[in-house]
């Protein structure tokens, strides 16, 4: 009786997770831009990260810790808002000597962040993203 339900489904092999460094950098940048949107909505926003820590007894425990998120926008001398985009601690230069985006007012910032997310997903910032260091290599596990 349950085999007729399974026959109605189409089975395919599970796709491999991409290990392309550029795609990893794109996804990380989109995640950081989403963090900026959340920080704009809630000034007290802190990103949560998971880390393995050892207790006194040597036992490893998964701990979730808050990570302070700094804002990527600021007010310029004329009173308008400018936004910079960072990879790690370095600002991305969109044109030679131009690392900031003129937003105008704080109300326009979410639409600018959304436009940046679309640009990152479309691959328009691949050159700037690939200039920095690559993602940290995962340690190779050796079996004894």
State mean pLDDT (0 to 100 scale): 85
Helix vs. strand class: alpha+beta
Strand order of the largest sheet: 3-4-7
Number of strands: 7
Describe this structure in a few short sentences.
It contains four helices and seven strands, in the order H-H-E-E-E-E-E-E-E-H-H. It has helices at 3-7, 21-41, 109-122, 126-131; strands at 46-54, 60-68, 73-75, 81-84, 86-87, 90-91, 100-104.
Structure description:
- With 144 residues, this protein is an alpha+beta fold.
- It is built from four helices and seven strands, in the order H-H-E-E-E-E-E-E-E-H-H.
- The chain has helices at 3-7, 21-41, 109-122, 126-131, and strands at 46-54, 60-68, 73-75, 81-84, 86-87, 90-91, 100-104.
- The protein has a three-stranded antiparallel sheet, with no helix packed on it. Strands 1-2 form a two-stranded antiparallel sheet.
- A hairpin with a 5-residue loop joins strand 3 and strand 4 (81-84).
- The protein is extended, with a radius of gyration of 21 Å.
């Amino acid at each position: 009786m349950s085999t007729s339900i399974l026959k109605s489904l189409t089975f395919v092999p599970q796709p491999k997770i991409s290990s392309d460094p550029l795609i990893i950098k794109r996804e990380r940048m989109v995640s950081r831009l989403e963090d900026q949107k959340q920080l704009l909505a809630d000034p007290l926003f802190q990103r949560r990260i998971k880390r393995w820590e050892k207790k006194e007894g040597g036992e490893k425990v998964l701990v979730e810790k808050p990570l302070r998120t700094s804002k990527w926008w600021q007010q310029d001398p004329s009173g308008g808002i400018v936004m910079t985009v960072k990879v790690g601690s370095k600002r991305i230069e969109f044109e030679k000597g131009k690392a900031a985006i003129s937003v105008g007012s704080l109300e326009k910032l979410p639409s600018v962040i959304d436009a940046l997310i679309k640009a990152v997903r479309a691959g328009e910032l691949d050159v700037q993203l690939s200039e920095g260091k690559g993602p940290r290599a995962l340690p190779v596990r050796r079996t004894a």
